[in-house]
């Protein structure tokens, strides 16, 4: 018999408490910003004592990194994957439109990881927060996945002639989604499909030029 602790009511209760803390921190950060999010406010919002927070997280930085991680994993699990099916006969622009139509629309709900991550990118600190490091790492992974997806449509000659093209296009896609997120904070009637159409048109022109 394994000596490891088996999942049970106690471990389930701990997970419920951990998620309550993470959600409370996310709500406060969305309302007041990273700096104004404190352990004291998190305990009050979650209804759990400070000892519970420190049981799971060593400090505020660790907690906020978990907020970003938890939000990102929830978001990415519902997104179409940047993987091309060999049987897929759609053009790259048709495939791009299909993926972006879902992913851009999901940003309407302002996922916590995007809000907090972009907030941290715009601020300068002597010590880089763990949440910022995690956010940048996830962006690098997503950018690489998008670049690989574009590369799958390029022939050998194009890959050799313009090895940077796929990464450039991936960064254009990310920049456009960032812009959409910021714009929605000002103009909440901005249609995601309009943004998708513009991105697809830009990519189409870039690839046509090759």
Automatic annotation (TrEMBL):
Keywords: DNA-binding, Transcription, Transcription regulation. Residues 38-57 bind DNA. This is TetR family transcriptional regulator. It comes from the Bacteria. One of its GO terms (molecular function) is transcription cis-regulatory region binding. It comes from Actinocorallia herbida. Gene3D superfamilies: Tetracycline Repressor, domain 2 (1.10.357.10). The keyword Transcription applies.
């Amino acid at each position: 018999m394994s000596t490891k602790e088996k999942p049970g009511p106690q471990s389930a209760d701990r997970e419920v408490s951990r998620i309550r803390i993470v959600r409370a921190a996310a709500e406060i950060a969305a309302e007041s910003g990273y700096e104004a999010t404190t352990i004291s406010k998190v305990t009050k919002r979650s209804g759990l004592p400070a000892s519970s927070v420190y049981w799971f997280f060593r400090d505020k930085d660790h907690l906020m990194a978990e907020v970003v991680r938890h939000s990102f994993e929830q978001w990415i699990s519902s997104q179409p994957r940047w993987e091309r099916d060999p049987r897929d006969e759609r053009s790259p622009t048709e495939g791009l439109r299909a993926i972006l139509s879902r992913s851009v629309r999901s940003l309407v709900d302002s996922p916590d990881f995007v809000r907090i991550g972009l907030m941290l990118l715009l601020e300068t600190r002597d010590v880089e927060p763990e949440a910022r490091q995690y956010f940048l790492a996830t962006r690098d992974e997503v950018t690489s996945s998008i670049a690989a997806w574009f590369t799958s449509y390029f022939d050998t000659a194009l890959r050799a002639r313009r090895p940077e093209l796929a990464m450039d296009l991936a960064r254009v896609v990310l920049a456009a989604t960032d812009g959409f997120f910021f714009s929605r904070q000002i103009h909440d009637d901005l249609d995601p499909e309009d943004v998708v159409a513009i991105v697809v048109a830009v990519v189409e022109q870039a690839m046509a030029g090759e």
